[in-house]
Design brief:
This protein has 153 residues and is mainly alpha-helical. 75% of the residues lie in helices and 0% in strands.
Length: 153
C-alpha cells in the first residue's frame, strides 16, 4: 500500500511540474486550498495543510489541483462547506436581507459590497423556498440548491 502511495505521489508531482495552471499556484497554497484538508478545515489553513499531509501525504490536494485547479483556489469548497454548516442561519439572513452569516457568505463568494448580487441571491433563494418540494428536502439538498445559486450568480 505504501509503495502504491509513493508511486502515485511521484506521478502526481511529475504531472504537477508540467502543468501550467499548477505552476502559478504556490505549493503551500495547494496544501491549504485543495484536497481533503480544504474540505475539512476551510477556514483554518494550518489544519487544512496538516490534514492533507497526515491523511495521504498531500496526494488528494495535488491531484485536485491538477484535475480541477479552478475548484480549489480558495473558494468553492469553502463556500460549499460554509453553506452546509451554516444553512439555518443563512436561511434566516437571506430572508431578512442582512446578517453576519449572509455577510460571510458574500465575502467567501467574492461578492463583497455588491448589492445587485445580493438582490439576485435573495430573489433566487425566494424561488427555491417557494418550491413545494422544499419542505421535503434534506439539509444537503437545500444546501446544494443554495450553493448552485451562489456559484451561478
Amino acid at each position: 500500500m505504501l509503495k502504491i502511495i509513493k508511486v502515485f505521489s511521484i506521478t502526481t508531482l511529475t504531472l504537477l511540474a508540467f502543468s501550467q495552471s499548477s505552476m502559478a499556484r504556490e505549493f503551500a497554497d495547494i496544501y491549504t486550498d485543495c484536497g481533503l484538508g480544504a474540505m475539512i478545515a476551510p477556514t483554518n489553513s494550518a489544519v487544512a495543510a496538516v490534514t492533507n499531509v497526515t491523511f495521504d501525504l498531500g496526494t488528494t490536494a495535488i491531484s485536485s489541483n491538477l484535475s480541477s485547479p479552478d475548484t480549489c483556489n480558495g473558494g468553492q469548497e469553502k463556500v460549499a462547506s460554509f453553506i452546509y454548516n451554516a444553512y439555518e442561519p443563512l436561511e434566516k439572513d437571506l430572508a431578512s436581507g442582512s446578517g453576519t452569516y449572509l455577510d460571510s457568505l458574500m465575502l467567501l463568494a467574492g461578492y463583497t459590497q455588491d448589492q445587485e448580487k445580493l438582490e439576485v441571491l435573495r430573489n433566487g433563494f425566494a424561488k427555491i423556498v417557494a418550491n413545494p418540494s422544499y419542505v421535503d428536502q434534506n439539509r444537503f439538498e437545500k444546501a446544494k440548491a443554495l450553493y448552485d445559486l451562489v456559484i451561478n450568480v
